[in-house]
Amino acid sequence: MKMSIRTPPRLLELAGRSLLRDQALAMSTLEELPTELFPPLFMEAFSRRRCEALKLMVQAWPFRRLPLRPLIKMPCLEAFQAVLDGLDALLTQGVCPRRWKLQVLDLQDVCENFWMVWSEAMARGSFLNAKRNKTPVQDCPRMRGQQPLTVFVELWLKNRTLDEYLTYLLLWVKQRKDLLHLCCKKLKILGMPFRNIRSILKMVNLDCIQEVEVNCKWVLPILTQFTPYLGHMRNLQKLVLSHMDVSRYVSPEQKKEIVTQFTTQFLKLHCLQKLYMNSVSFLEGHLDQLLSCLKTSLKVLTITNCVLLESDLKHLSQCPSISQLKTLDLSGIRLTNYSLVPLQILLEKVAATLEYLDLDDCGIIDSQVNAILPALSRCFELNAFSFCGNPISMATLENLLSHTIILKNLCVEVYPAPRESYGADGTLCWSRFAQIRAELMNRVRDLRHPKRIFFCIDNCPDCGNRSFYDLEADQYCC
């Protein structure tokens, strides 16, 4: 049966499947295959491990991109190898088949049913377009020339060894480094010897990396080895650092030198917008070094579960790169003995843009709250505010609510149950807690209708963990 782009989609699919059963499938046959048949037939050939058909189909691929990641979630290493073998034949030639347009082998995550949706959309779209235009567009021969094939991956380095697909791919790329660009937009390092990480980073085009997460309990000497690679990630937009520790064998002089080497890399990061630092012990007394090297206005800044000096907080309030923040998270930073005037100045700077503020578990007490209230009440774009884990009284909580109640965009608010809710032994007094909630609800309603207000208690009787109670209802979630 001669197939054309005017053949209805279902008949095309059936005819195409018959081709897969043909053991003598040739490139000349694929040259005549309607474009819309490639996605469904490729998907079937991959799932059925039709390796020879895969080799030919990838050499005639009529699209710029081949999104392979959803298919390799199936246990088909043999089929994956066949695709790479098919590409090998092209990479060693100067001229590619007439229809071949492939520029990007995409191994990034997409939705599970991507190929099914794409196949159906291609079949419907091509059939409808053909009914509007009787003259099909002809593909033109092209030379591959000097343009290397780009391979996109997401690197999630969490074990001592990589999975079999990534292991095979990296070996394949390493042997063809002059013919390929290995690109990665998202890099996660969650636990792997640095010598292995180094060998992988040497193969990656670091300019392509946009997001990096490092969460594997590094000490400063290991961070030093990573530092030069960070400086080459010139398009980095998001950086997450977690559990960075100072080795007890590192002297104060060495610490200062290492921190300087690390922070000066930020001078090269002209696209950085989101910076997350959790449990990073070397920030204490050195936050000014990092802040002074920021070259962009951050949208997100989270410094959590770190020890900061009062001088660090002052430097943060003076940093020009934080004036356009949308998210500020300082949860877990103990501020009990500090003046909150720097925090007040910081909130004043970001009042026009701030949308999310988290001050959980900062140890803020009654005498400190008044310092931040005027600035907080001017954060008119704020839509989420969390203040739980701070031991404040009923009077202070009422004062806090009277300032946040005027923020019309505020959708979610989380506050600690006031100290009066607890008995002398620290356990929650349920009757008193219920009474306080009722009183606060009445006062809040007098000013505006709240969207979602939660109270947080530290020791849930059911699970022993922190739990949250809706202000309006007897519902809670652990």
Automatic annotation (TrEMBL):
The highest taxon in the source lineage is Eukaryota
- MF terms (GO), sorted A to Z: ubiquitin-like ligase-substrate adaptor activity
Q: Which GO terms describe its biological process?
A: negative regulation of apoptotic process; negative regulation of cell differentiation; negative regulation of DNA-templated transcription; positive regulation of cell population proliferation
Instruction: Pull one GO CC term from this UniProt entry.
Output: Cul2-RING ubiquitin ligase complex
Alphabetically sorted, this entry's keywords are:
Leucine-rich repeat, Repeat
User: By its UniProt entry, which InterPro entries does this protein fall under?
Assistant: LRR_dom_sf, LRRC14/PRAME, PRAME
The record's comment on protein family reads: Belongs to the PRAME family.
Q: Which PANTHER family match?
A: PRAME FAMILY MEMBER 11-RELATED (PTHR14224:SF19), SIMILAR TO PREFERENTIALLY EXPRESSED ANTIGEN IN MELANOMA-LIKE 3 (PTHR14224)
The entry's protein name is PRAME family member 9
Organism, per UniProt? Homo sapiens (Human)
